[in-house]
Amino acid sequence: MAYLEKFKVKGKTYYKLVQSVREGEKITHRAKYIGKVLPPKERMQQLEKEFLKAIISPRYRYFSAEEVNKIEEKKKSNIDETKNLSPLERKNMLEEFIIRFTYDSNKLSGLEVTLRQTSLILREGIIPKGFKSLRTVKELENHEKGVIAITKYKGRLTPAFIKKLHRMLMAGVDDSIAGRFRSELQRNVRLAGTPYVPPKWDEIDREIKSFFKWYDSKKNKFHPLELAALVHLKIISIQPFADGNSRLSRLLMNWVLWKKNYPMVDIPIEDLEKYYGVLDEYQIEKNERPFIHYIKETFLKG
Q1: What is the domain extent for residue 140?
Q2: What is the pLDDT of residues 264-282, one digit of tens each?
Q3: Which of 100, 137, 177, 220 stands the most exposed, by the fewest C-beta atoms within 10 Å?
Q4: Do 112 and 11 have their domain in common?
């Protein structure tokens, strides 16, 4: 139950409602300003009720309380499952995800490869018989390194981290663009199959600066799954690099989730049309909600 607290500013008396809240191992205090004069008893009870409801039931921009409960149940279930596994079993579980995620992410980006070929290359280190594209082999191996990197990185989301991930993805594939923003290359890009035109090269620095300003100011105001989806959506729409942006954006989405102990999301190649459809909703119609809800549904199915 909240309690009423009296405080003074420049000799004048004011009132506020205060509630103690446990956040992890810490106790913090939330307050709601009332004013100089206390309202009638019934109004005061209503204010207290609204105040406590706002604290107990956090409201997110895109997810309902019911959806958040499902997401949190999925998170808890995943944590409980992995707790009961041996270190070797956890390693194997991650490897299975990496193989499938690498296959799907690269297929979404247009690579001609099968799931079986991906598994042979990554798990066995074997180039399948008749497989002629050494570039594809390198792209698969690089993506695997990228997934491992996001599970080990403990720092903040910064331009340097994004560039580092991109260098991993493009190393030995196209070193001339690896880790270099389009502004450095003075290069524009066009996307096949969509009327959406990404920012021009001379707009990239401004777009990146705007993205980080948004991220730093909003990262604690979204549910982690909302934030992960939005990071993906904004980076893939900016297209900061000359190639590899969609794979990079999916890695960054999963870094946000991994950091907060949520299961990572794999977008299956079977969803290609749906995935690009909700991307179009944002890039053409400026409606980000369908994409965020698609990521939520994919997360819950995973």
Answers
A1: 65-301
A2: 999 999 999 999 999 999 9
A3: 220
A4: no
